Amino acid sequence: MNLKMATRHALFAILELADHPRAQISSAQIAEKYAISPNHLSKVLRTLVCKGLVEAIRGAGGGYSFVGNAKRVTLLDIILIFEEIGTPPSHKQEPGDDTAEGQALRMVMGEIDAISRATLSSITIDTMLKISRRTPGIGSAVHAL
Amino acid sequence: MPTLAANTEFEIRPAAAADLDAVIHLDTQITAMPKVEYWHGIFERFGRRETDGFFLVATSGEGVLGFVVGEIRAWEFGSDPCGWIFAIEVSPDLRMNKVGTALYAALCANFRKAGVSRIRTMLARDAQLVMQFFRSQGMMAGPFIQLEKELDE
């Protein structure tokens, strides 16, 4: 399973902000740490502000902060802001969908989607930070803010 | 149901027969399915074991706040001996007070003492609260996948 670029940026931003609950962090700092486009990240942060998960403070010393509940907000909550998991209900018919084989394939893929959703909804931001802390980063892009 | 004031101390200890009514009440409150015989059976099987099965309760002066049950299982489908957690419940009014974490830690300590180094459990996919709890304790997906089938298909 791959996530869209915007989703990955959002997850990185939320994790970074939630890991520094009393700090105001600029989008440039987050972009630098994760080696991602500052422009694209800014758009993602605006979306997160609109969703009430992030607060933006303008001016000198300003920046972004996480204002959600890290013990309640899950990875799935963030991901669903930017993309669907699995086949959306509005999915258009594909050739072969009406056959027994097409239905069987849909059933198996649905099983995978259900497991993905269950996994993502079981991991809160707080838990994800714990996982991150015990997982060593690799490469030069990873450094502490 | 008891409420836990700030800084109220509680203890974790093996379940006693006198705790069963409170355990059954708590389980019924959470699952909405009274299982009186089941819990008496669980107590008979695990309440008096000290080496390969554990039935622990968290209590304060107010009564039973929560409980956990686990046993050591070995060689199911090739699995080496592991601690298997098959019940953990905390009074809904008392969640986020570290009662579940203390129960979990006490059970893990018993498993470690018994010589196992890995714990496992199985949950319904939609049991989000309990799954989030186990995830917060560091549990990850294991190498097994649960399968099932209706026998009359």
TrEMBL record, chain A:
InterPro entries: TR_Rrf2-type_CS, Tscrpt_reg_Rrf2, WH-like_DNA-bd_sf, WH_DNA-bd_sf. One of its GO terms (cellular component) is cytosol. It comes from the Bacteria. This is Transcriptional regulator, BadM/Rrf2 family. PANTHER family: HTH-TYPE TRANSCRIPTIONAL REGULATOR SLR0846-RELATED, WINGED HELIX-TURN-HELIX TRANSCRIPTIONAL REGULATOR, RRF2 FAMILY. SUPFAM superfamilies: Winged helix' DNA-binding domain. Signal peptide: none annotated. Gene3D superfamilies: Winged helix-like DNA-binding domain superfamily/Winged helix DNA-binding domain. GO terms for molecular function: DNA-binding transcription factor activity.
TrEMBL record, chain B:
This is L-amino acid N-acyltransferase YncA. Keywords: Acyltransferase, Transferase. It comes from Magnetospirillum fulvum (Rhodospirillum fulvum). PROSITE patterns: GNAT (PS51186). GO terms for molecular function: acyltransferase activity, transferring groups other than amino-acyl groups. Signal peptide: none annotated. InterPro entries: Acyl_CoA_acyltransferase (IPR016181), GNAT_dom (IPR000182). Residues 10-153 form the N-acetyltransferase domain. Gene3D superfamilies: 3.40.630.30. Transmembrane segments: none annotated. The keyword Transferase applies.
